[in-house]
Amino acid sequence: MGTPPFSCGGVHLAIKRKGIKVMMTREEYIESLRKLDLKVYFMGKRIENPVDHPIIRPSLNSVAMSYELAQKDEYKELMTATSNITGKTINRFCHIHQNAGDLVKKVKMQRLMGQKTAACFQRCVGMDAFNAIYSTTYDMDQELGTEYHKRFVKYLEMVQERDLVVDGAMTDPKGDRSLSPSQQPDPDMFLHITEIRPDGIVVCGAKAHQTGAVNSHEHLIMPTQAMKEEDKAYAVSFAIESDAPGIIMIYGRQSCDTRKMEEGADIDLGNNTFGGHEALVVFDNVFIPNERVFMCQEYKYAGMMVERFAGYHRQSYGGCKVGVGDVLIGAAALAADYNGVPKASHIKDKLIEMIHLNETLYACGIACSAEGKPTKSGNYLIDLLLANVCKQNVTRLPYEIARLAEDIAGGIMVTMPAEQDLRDDMLGPVVRKYLQGAAGTDVENRMRVLRLIENITLGTAAVGYRTESMHGAGSPQAQRIMIQRQGNLEAKKQLAREIAHVDVSKDHVAGK
User: Fold this and answer.
1) Residue set of the binding site for FAD
2) Which of 66, 232, 404, 490 has the smallest number of Cβ neighbours within 10 A?
3) What's the whole-number mean pLDDT along residues 21-41?
């Protein structure tokens, strides 16, 4: 295996001060990644040093913010929690929700992280996977007499003690989507078990669209959909180190990402500090020791794990997208200031609408959290119907918020000269002359705000704000299916019958 189980490349990822366990700092997190032997490829070449690569580093900075904020007293209520396993203070991103208050704090934490980074901060998927696997393995053990929950709790204790970033991985490439996993011409279109050994399993396949994979110490794998008996080889859940033999990561391209490679790039990046990323993670005959296996062919429980994870992750979007939306609304308001129209009635109305839409998303995230209930395992699950309503809104409202921001910014957002032109001795004065906005405003500041709006609506941050809003945690139809299942139409029919004094004995057609 290259490194023993639970070693994470042998990196010591926790320190103690005066006998009290503390979490990693931002700097310790970054240094821990340097010691991993990650196999990362981008544009046909292996990246030997992902930590300092100019395209990847902004996404790492976003994750590092989760460590930085957890160290600050003013944010510790949201950013930290008390472990139900050890009783120690841990980063909330590694926490198992113990009550509805924890679910609410999760959403508030995600909004805060979005406000601080204006990008995807990449730890939500792992947190949501922890909670879905925690309750599902408990139910499996109760029915089947397995020890998956015990294994998972031991694994999670290690994650909490070492304050790790874990990439929750669910989505498979899927190949021909009209065919089940076992019917695919190429079995690797869904990650699957190829061999079961006395000491573990061997898996092949890939996980696609993996948020923050390159910035993670571990990958935590889940099945991608409900399974039938013929698909049991694909019903698998496990954890593995990111630098384990047989794992490679192919970094995903993003709009405007190569701007980060330009010498002295700053203004044109829009957000020169933070970002997000996705990767295709390939598993080529990877061995997983038994203590890290949490599902092995128990196909009846694949759907439960998927449904619970999807619910948690759809809840997450009521926080993270709202935080980024806060930044976008602020940028649009600044653009109006620079354009000299902050008092125009139509501008005020557009900003009001943006705030209304953003707070609607937040309200959904808080609502599904406040209505959370305990599972048999003791951790809390959000209200699944409201979580799916939350995500259904997220597939729509951020697009309107972005449209309004572009409307307020004006066409100059996408036709503006480059930063190099502004810095040029000959062209600079010309750019400053013709890009001047309202009297007393600075041209460079105006350009920075416009590029930030471009970054969030069209550039690298748009991947996490717009496109992920559409397809992350399941594309729109997935939520509509769950809303239909959870909507309890029969109970609503009965409410109407009682109010209208309907005599059901007179109805003879099913469904009426």
Assistant:
1) 211
2) 490
3) 93
User: Which member of 80, 137, 211, 375 is catalytic?
Assistant: 211
Q: Which helix (H) or strand (E) holds 235?
A: none
Q: What is the rounded distance in angstroms from the CA atom of residue 332 to the CA atom of residue 334?
A: 5
Note the pLDDT of residue 171: 97
Please tell me which residue in 138, 313, 395, 419 is annotated as part of the active site: 313
Q: Is 234 a catalytic residue?
A: no
The answer as to whether 331 is a domain residue is yes
pLDDT of amino acid 263: 87
**Is the per-residue pLDDT at 174 higher than 80?**
yes
Total domains in the chain come to 1
- The answer to whether residue 121 sits within a structural domain is no
pLDDT exceeds cutoff 80 at 511 = no
Claim: this prediction has a pTM higher than 0.85:
yes
CA of 380: how far to CAs of 71, 95, 157, 176, 336, in Å? 26, 11, 18, 36, 43
Q: Does 509 have pLDDT greater than 80?
A: no
Per-residue DSSP letters for 157-191?
Answer: HHHHHHT--EEEE-----SSTTS-GGG-SSGGGS-
| 278 in active site | yes
What share of the chain has pLDDT > 70, as a percent?
A: 95
Q: Residue for token digits 């002359």?
A: 433
Could you list the residue range(s) of the whole structural domain that residue 318 is in? 306-493
317 included as an active-site residue: yes
Cα separations in angstroms, 395 against 59, 252, 421, 473, 478: 23, 22, 37, 10, 11
Q: Is 80 a catalytic residue?
A: no
Which residues are annotated binding-site positions? 211
Residue at 215: amino acid letter: N
With beta carbons less than 8 A apart as the criterion, state whether 293 and 238 touch.
yes
Pairwise pLDDT comparison (353 vs 507), residue with the higher score? 353
**Catalytic residue selected from 94, 124, 296, 368:** 124
Residue 319 has pLDDT above 80, yes or no: yes
Q: What is the pLDDT of residue 17?
A: 33
Q: Does 211 qualify as catalytic in the annotation?
A: yes
Tell me what pLDDT residue 16 has: 37
Residue 197: phi and psi, rounded to 5, are -110, 165
- Across the range 52-72, mean pLDDT stands at 97
pLDDT at position 510 is 58
- CATH code of 412's domain: 1.20.140.10
Among candidate residues 320, 364, 368, 390, the one labeled active-site is 320
Q: Which residue in the list 241, 278, 307, 406 is annotated as catalytic?
A: 278
H helix or E strand, kind and range, residue 270: none
Assigned domain for 143 exists: no
42 φ/ψ angles, rounded to the nearest 5 degrees: -150, 125
Active site annotation includes 94: no
